[in-house]
Every structure is written in structure tokens, then in C-alpha cells.
Amino acid sequence: MTARRHRLRRATTAELIKLRGLPAALAAMLATVVAGALFAAADPAGPAQAVPFLQIGPIVLGVLVVAAEYSGRQIATTLIAMPRRLVLLAGKAGAYLIAATATSVITIGGWLVPGRPAGRWTVIGAAAYLVLMGLLALGLTVLLRSLVLPLAGLLTLVLVVSPLLAGYTEHARWLPDQAGRALSQPHGDFTTGAAILLAWTASVAAAGTVAFLSRDA
Amino acid sequence: MLTFPRTLVAELRKTATLPGSLAALAVASVGPLGISLLNSMGVRNALRSGQPDLVAYTSAADAVFSAAPLGTVGAVVLGVIAVSSEYTANTPDAGGGRQITATLTATPSRLAVVAAKATVVALLVLATAAVTIPVCLGAANLVLGGLGTPADVGDTVARGVGAAVYWTLTALMVLAITVLTRNGIGPLIAGIVNSSLVSVSVLLSHVTPLAYYLPDLAGMRLFADDSIATFDGALDPIPGGLVMATWALGLLAISSVVFTRRDA
């Protein structure tokens, strides 16, 4: 048990070091924090209006954590250093969660400044939403092993397709971003939204894990 | 100059055979068609049940042109990967080189490379639009039957041409930016965000009317009318299209200068 925990910690540390070496990932985190501060200054009522824009940062981060391994063949080196694939994936997810949680909390923190009317739960929900959307992106990238495909696909889904579908059918509320949006809205259905978004993230992560464990790198 | 047609054919081959190009063109054609069908079915159902106030518009043309942002996304992906594919490092097993070195060895005239790439991307986007938009209009009219509000034919043709021009100019802008950045991530994100309905430019337009001169908002009226997006200060189609074209040509000029003067 201790050995396993030790391995996991080392995998997470290694992934954090690799993450620090990605300029695009650092830029995405910084841009998200700056954008969050600007939005909080412009619209102190709550993060609901800002979240559609802010989610771009965690999505980019989640995609990059995995996609950087597949531009060139860094993944081969990584798997030689860390042959246990499940531990490697857990390490990647851990490194992402640390980076994304820190980014999201600082980003959304602007609405928690005393005297602001934003409700505590909408702020916590917005931060959780950002982290989960990026985790979804990470799982999708493990599945697709590419940069452009998951990045363009997911951004198109949340920024273009989802608003278009929402105008057409109420069933669009089952999409991950529409469901998760309830987390950051004052009168949203918190539990249902969280459950749907978690179900999306969990199933994509499970599919990615199975694919990563069973196929050639 | 005699070698330019050959450069053009070479770039056409390279761009058209990228797996991502096929995906981009599929997004730009199947995407608008799917959304057009959904939109027109929504309009048909609302009209049949006697509740036209449930939908924002009742004409086939509006059902099609509100799906145009998906075509822009396809154009953005094509414009980005036409250039970023040149800079992606090959696998170390094959030397880890970048295609741009081979390209510039074969075509030392850098201006010809940029011009050929821009021409090829513009042609591919225009060809996709020429097929997609009429098919979407036909499909939407078929779904609506005689129910929809009839739209002026000349007006619809103008908006169709406008959408094709909007897609092409957007593709050229992100192509020019990718030549500058030599990396696809930034232009891809910026392009998709600003072709979407939650565009940063729309946000800025709440702050200053100057935002209507940003490329994506300037060209908005080329295909969108009030039922799709209400922007009081938006430029009219022709001036807006000219502003957008100026952005595209300006960015292409800057990137051509940078590309000819800098190490690959």
C-alpha cells in the first residue's frame, strides 16, 4: 500500500515537472486567471456569464497534458520510465487536477472578495465545473492521442454546437457543458447538473483508461 | 512566375491530403447541414402547432444561416493546419525534421509558398461553401415545405455569397496568424472562440463600439440578420465585408513579410 502510494506520488511529481515545461499550458493557466479577474471586475454579480469563456483554459490544459506526449514520441520514453500505465494515467490526472484546481480557485476567487453578492455555492460550483471540463478534455485526448482533434472538437462542442442545439431542443441540457452550467448559476439544479457532468467525465475517462491499458502506445 | 502553378499544385496536394483537412471540410459541410435540418424541423414543428413565437425566425434562409458558425469552424481548422502541419516535428525515427525545410528546399521563393497556401485554402473553403450552402438551403426548404416565410431570392443569394466570403476570409486570417506563430494551438483557439456565439468581440462590443471593427463582428452582417444576432451598431454587409477583407489582407501582408525575412 505504501509502495503504491509512493509510486503514485512520484508519477504525479514527474507529470507536474513535465507540465511546467509546456509554455502553452502555462499560458493557458495565466490567461484564465487574468480573464477571471477581468470578468469579476466587470460583472461582480456572479461567475455564470464568465464561465463559457473561462472553460477554454482548463480544456486547453487537459488536452495539453496528454497531447504533448504524442507530438513526437515522448510517450515511448514516458512508458519506459513508468511502465505501469494505470499509475502513469493516475499521475497525469493528479498533475492536471493540482494545476487546474489551483488555476480555477484563483480564477473564480475574484467573486469571493468580501462585499460581493455572489453566492458561495455558485462560486464553488463554477470552480468545480472548470476542473471537470478539463478532466473531460484530458480523458478525450487519452482516447484520441492527438492535439487538434480533441481541442477543436471539444471547443466546437461547447462554444458553437451546444448553444445552437440549446436553441433547438431542450434535450441539449444533457450535454456536459449545458448540464454543468447549472453548477455556476444561482438557481440552477445543482445536483442534477453535477451528476450529468460527472457521468460524462467518468465515462470518457473510463473509455480512455481502457483504451490506454489495452492498446499499443 | 512560371513555376507558380507548380507550387500551387504542390500545396494543393499537401493540404488536401492532410487527414485533418478532410475532417475540417467535413465539419464545414456536414455540420451546417445537420444544424440546418434541426433548425428547419424546429421551425416546421412550431409553425404546424400554430406557435410561431416559439422560434426566433420562420424562414428557411434563417434556419440555414444561423448554422453558418460551424462552417467558420471548419474553415478555421483548415487554415490553421495548412500551415501548422509544416511546423510539426516528425517522429524521431524519421529524423525529427519539419516539413517546412523540405518545402522551402523545393520552393525557395517564400512569397510563392505563402501565396500558394493562401490560394489553396481559399479555393478549398469556397468549393466547400459552394456545395454546402445550396444543399442546406434546398434541404431546409424541403423540410419546411410551403410553411416557412418566403425569403427574397436575391437577398438569400447575397447572404449565401456573404457566408462563403466570411468563411474564406476567416480561414485566410488564421492562416496568416499561424504563419506568424508557427504553432497551431493559439490560432486554433482564437479562431474557434471568435467564430462562436460567445465571441470575445461580442463581449468587447458592450464596452466600446470600436469592437464592431474587429474582423469577426465586422463581417457578421454578410450572412446574419437581426433574427440570428441582434447587434445595433454592427456594420452593414458591404462596408463590414470590406473591413474584414482589409484585416485578412493586412494580416497576410504582415505574415508574408515576416515569413520572407525570418529563419524558417
UniProtKB/TrEMBL annotation, chain A:
The chain crosses the membrane at residues 21-41, 53-72, 93-113, 119-140, 147-168, 193-213. It comes from the Bacteria. Keywords: Membrane, Transmembrane, Transmembrane helix. This is ABC transporter permease.
UniProtKB/TrEMBL annotation, chain B:
It comes from the Bacteria. This is ABC transporter permease. The chain crosses the membrane at residues 20-38, 120-144, 164-181, 188-214, 238-259. Keywords: Membrane, Transmembrane, Transmembrane helix.
